[in-house]
Amino acid sequence: MVEIIGKVLGKRYEIIEKIGEGGMAVVYKARCRLLNRYVAVKILRDELTTDEEFINKFRHESQAAASLSHPNIVGIYDVGVEDDIHYIVMEYIKGKTLKDIIKEKGKLGPEETINYAMQIAEAIGHAHKNHIVHRDIKPHNIMVTDDGRIKVTDFGIARAATSATMTNTSSVIGSVHYFSPEQARGKFTDEKSDIYSLGIVMYEMITGKVPFEGESPISVALKHVEEEITPPSEIDHSIPKNIEYIIMKAAKRDQAGRYKNTEELLEDLRKVKYSDEDLHFTEDTNRFDSETIILPPVGENGDEDEEKKKKEPKKKLKKKPKDKKGNKKAVFLGILLAFLLVNGIAFGILKLKDGFMSREVKVPDLMGMQEEMAKEKIEEMDLEFVVKERKYSSEFKEGEIMWQSEDPGKTVKKGYSVEVIVSKGDKKVKVPDFTGKDIGEISFLLEEAGLQEGVVDYSYSDSVPKNIVMSQSIESGTEVKEGSKINLVVSKGPEIRTTTMPKLIGLKENEAKRGIVAKGLVVGNIRYEVSNSVERGIVLWQSYDQGTQLQQNTSVDLVISSGPPKKPKEEEKKELPKDEKDQNEKKPGGGKKPGEGEENGSGHGGEGSGEEGEGSGSGSGGEGSGEGETNTQREQQ
To answer: Hey, what domains does the chain have and what are their CATH numbers?
Structure first.
């Protein structure tokens, strides 16, 4: 993505800083110059701008979300495209994501969980009334303001719930830990999919963890499809049953078993918050240890016969005289029968109790015990040892019991099944290849891989672009403990190296060029100028003064001397050609015309040889002597 900080979009929104990012877009804090307020600007990633499908989804997000107006939904202010930058302008929320709050606190209390759940339900309920299904409800997409108000955001994959999309089976997008089973299968999704995801969010709020973990996103998705979530009270016994009931119903695997809509869900949430009314639970008959008691059908010594008797017309009977003695006897027999019945039952109960007591044992403490040892201990007590599942754990070593279905010391009958979860030790994950990735993507990629960011160092590179990961501390493909930290080295781009400008003036041209290259500089333009004082090929001028600090690869221009100027043509004409001079020298008188000796030197000088005649011009031909020396010098030259 091009440098965006400081850019003004739509001649209105000045980008200030990056505040978040997701798979589709990066979110920036910006200032609206028109209204002088802060806004959030979501910008589609560069690599997606060429993908028509993603662009259409991005546009649909803005249109769908802009149609919603609710205090618990992030407002949409503007949409635009500029220089291939697709953006949405949204309400700026000062706060944290619900995911961050859960991480900070570990888990939330019942009251806080209910408060947040009600606001989330209000938000998605408003969207449902406008025929919009969010389809990506998760703590990462839920903002919590500083005053505790919920703001649901990121309708990145929201779809209008029209007849055209009710049968849509396109690829499922979002976080797999909060998927509904139908989303995981790529099947029909509706408002109940959002309710399921909200149930998972509530589960994480109250327990501090998601219900399903797996070695890969696919394995987690399969658990959503094939398994019911574990009741929260099995993780934390202090969790209220009413809240557990809501979570279990909202996150039912079968859509038909969930709340029909958010209104039903809100009704139960309000009951929990504002009244002590118990919600209606379905009793789990497997939790009772006693043997099955077969009750007689109604009518066999039951109350229904009494009702029938009351309805039957009374027969007219002849009145018999009252027998007082008979009445007293009947009363006595009734009391005796009742006494015998009560004592007989009591005696029977005592006998049964003795029989049951002889068959009961106390569950031992298996926590932290190795699986084989725990199994032996359970079987010695005539109990059944059942491994419910094996889970990764950073707290328990591989093979240790990390959970048991019954508390230590609980009395159960012999033959009772005690379920356990056995630790698989630290979860191992494979380290992805982060090299070549932008540092802005790393946080998301690390989280997806189950890893953490370690130390990030920055280093110059001539070959790797700025902000791209060059190396990682653990090689890709290596299996490491989940949560391990990965150190990264990120490119700062080419290093800006400087050098000192050397002195080149006075050097020969080739020496000056070598001096430029040796300093990491580049030879620039070279001009040649006439100089009466500096010989040919010597540097007269350099474009930067000696001692100047320059970036490497800077071009340095030079001016080189071409020597003194050429002689004018008039002076060249005064000199005779060499051949003509040679002919004159062979003539009597040193090649002088008649009378020239008298004019320029003595006549005697002309009688000797050319050199002697010109060289002996003394006496009355003194002037001729001077002329003779000049000519000799020219010839030598």
So the answer is: 8-91 (3.30.200.20), 97-274 (1.10.510.10), 360-423 (3.30.10.20), 432-491 (3.30.10.20), 498-561 (3.30.10.20), 577-636 (no CATH)
